[in-house]
Amino acid sequence: KGTPTIGGVYGAGNGAFSDYDANGDYKSLCELKRPKQTSGTFVDINTKGGYIGIVCGGGNLADVKMPGYDNVEHPEYSKTTVLLNATGSGLESKGGRHVGAIYGAGYGDISNSDLGKVYGLTEVKIIGGSVGNVFGGGCMASVEGYTNVYVQGGTEEKPINVGNVYGGNDITGTVSGANNPRRRASDNNFVTTASYVKVTGSPTVGQVFGGGNGDYNYTSGNYAGLNPPVIASTFVDLNMEGGKVTTAFAGGNNATVSGNASVLLNTTETINTENPDALVGSIFGGNNKAAMGILPNINLNKGVVENVYGGGNGAKVTGNTDIIIGDDPE
Question: Rg (Cα) of the chain, in Å, rounded?
Answer without folding.
Answer: 20
